[in-house]
Prior knowledge:
The chain is an alpha/beta fold.
Amino acid sequence: MNLAHLAAERSAAGKPVRAGLIGAGKFGSMFLAQVPTTAGLTVTAIADLDTDRARAQCRAVGWDEDRIAATAFTDNGATLTKRDDVDVVIEATGSPTAGIVHALAAFAARKHVVMVNVEADVLAGAALAKHAGQAGVVCSMAYGDQPALVAEMVDWARACGFGVAAAGKGTKYLPAYHHVTPDDVWGHYGLTPQQAKDAGMNPQMFNSFLDGTKSAIEMAAIANACDLAVPGDGLLFPPCGVDDLAQVLRPRAEGGVLERSGVVEVVSSLERDGSPVERDLRWGVYAVLEAPNDYSAACFGQYGLNTDRSGRYASMYKPFHLIGMELGISVLSAALRGEPTGSTRGFRGDAVAVAKRDLKSGETLDGEGGYTVWGKLAPAADSVARGLLPIGLAHGVRLVRPVAMDTALTYDDVEPLPDTPALALRREHEALAGAETP
């Protein structure tokens, strides 16, 4: 609650926090829009594969020409991490393999990292956290994105002495969405393909939000940051509005849908027949609290919280998230407090690749939101024991045998993966965290 004051002091001293942004897409652009009006924060360098597009994005979000001229632009993210005028590196490419390379380079240069790239964090977060610790820097989730906002709510609840029965987010979901491809995605967003093209929207990226992949990745990140469990057979996506969170998201033994207390879950804004849920949480996040005693339970009701019928479970929620526009919180927290806004603490959840259709030997996988696979949340212990293929490594690799629709892929189903920093760090992640997995 003192962050703006600390940043203002840095501004007054002429020593603003200096950020370097890798990836000037939608998330990064929303962050850039806030920089001119955030005291004590500046962006000194931007890396993007298309530097002309990055400059155009700066103009589109309201930067004047003097600010653009004072900013260094490069097409090499690793080069940006080595700059002396960068205190905090923001990794916003969305590519897990690129994200890992950039993070390791930043740690080697003793730079804090804010990982907008949740895909990289879920693929190898325990190993990233280890390397950051060894370098004496912060590796942080990105405030404004759902995982960091949920991590904040869970931390608040526990610091208040409450149990956390469930935590997660809302989304638009129907079971059939798991098999949607980029060819079919725009109708689900109420857009024509031409409207989406004119807006510069990437069909594969947007499809990863629809087909369940992003939900799996984000819930794995939350589980790993908050020491929460994941459902044994993947997310349930129960239809649920904000008034019913405490009633629905409690253990089955007490009338809810959860297999146990203390898990991550995503609620759907649609009933299974496609009709809208009343007062849905499509754009928000939540935590279901468990009262530690009768007195606390009574206070839930006295102060107007939505509770279950027993009164022992209550919900807190945030109806919206502003993604990149809130990202400065993470940057300032890392630089001024040395604290992350959420970070991986273990390996409890994984996001694994599942066949969208019957796949043939010789086909090439195309990763998140594509035509071949979708990402499913799985317990880390199960993923490691079965050798399941992480969705973050299911890009550009060929199948060596057929895989039936809705079957989770394994490392043995694909050709040997190329020897990359991402694969090496994934192996390190599994070795570091496997023994800690419940």
